[in-house]
Design goal:
Length: about 100
């Protein structure tokens, strides 16, 4: 009976790890999409651009003004790029911890 419980717990943690990985990758995708839309000078009044920008602003881990270079495109690339990398690293660490349990 203990083997069944252990297997069920491991399976459940595997599912949670997969969900965490998917959520982390979606967050990284939103941040990267914001960078790309900014670099390509997408219309800021467009619904999609506004939507991505608002989500990216909420998910940037407070790093929206970490670097303040004179060029706005460079600022967005650096700040949101660092946030995307941090999300990717944090997600990877949490997923590995969950899979080791």
């Amino acid at each position: 009976m203990t083997t069944t419980v252990g297997t069920t717990v491991r399976h459940g943690l595997g599912i949670i790890a997969t969900i965490v990985r998917i959520v982390g990758l979606v967050i990284v995708a939103v941040l990267v999409a914001h960078i790309v839309l900014t670099l390509l000078e997408a219309n800021p009044a467009n619904f999609l651009t506004e939507y991505v920008s608002s989500w990216a602003g909420q998910l940037n881990l407070g790093l929206g003004n970490l670097f303040v270079p004179a060029q706005p495109k460079l600022a967005v690339t650096l700040n949101y790029g660092v946030a995307a990398i941090l999300w990717l690293v944090l997600t990877t660490v949490v997923v590995r911890l969950l899979r080791r349990v």
